[in-house]
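Field reference: "sequence" (input) and "structure" (output). Example, Glycerophosphodiester phosphodiesterase 1 isoform X2:
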Amino acid sequence: MRLFSSYRVVFASKNGATGVELDLEFSADGVPILMHDETVDRTTNGSGPLSQMRLSELGKLDAAAKHRLMETFAGEKIPTLEEAVEECIKLQLTIYFDVKGHPDEAAAALKELYKKHPVLYNSSIVCSFEPKVIYRMRQSDPEVVTALTHRPWSLSRLGDGAPRFSSLWKHHWMTVMDMALDWAHHHVLWKFCGISAFLIQKNCVSPDYAQYWAQRGVEVVAWTVNTKAEKDYYQELLQVNYITDSLVEDCEPHY
């Protein structure tokens, strides 16, 4: 389940979640925090690039200001990575550390976190769209469980399928790069990075696809699965884990 607030971690646990996804980013003064975007505009009552805001400034924002359950979580603060992890450990939740970038900084921060909380070696996984992040993490600490995250055509198209670039030339070039990246993920990068799981957009997951990775000793995790029918399909028929935005109700589909 995707979360960025410490209180919502507790909320997820009470609703039956066995794990949570924590989006790792950094404040301007280098503090690891939880934030999905590069700016605070979409999810808070603030505005501006995350890279230009110190932790003290971020602490003044309401992290639930634009959430659909804003009344329930009004006044929530953006937690530090340390705060969120301690809460997850207390609740015995599996953690998916979703690292957006900053491979060197992220590897260093997570290495320290694992050293401080050794229980994480058996209860968490570091994942990223960027192979370099996973490579750096494995270099920093080979004992950490890692995963690659992938969505076909992510370089040339947005999540809803719309072209990412208005330039026809650039669109075609990035389409070629998408095909190369997809091939690399399935034939080279997974082994080179030493992953244990592959987080893939839900529409790609089929019985044959799950079997493909099972033969390689890699677990498949589908995202983002937001309806009861989908959850039953992935969990009962395909027997793969999934990431969802809600455990108790159907949400808008995420592609």
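The mean pLDDT is 90.
Residues 119 and 161 are 40 Å apart (CA to CA).
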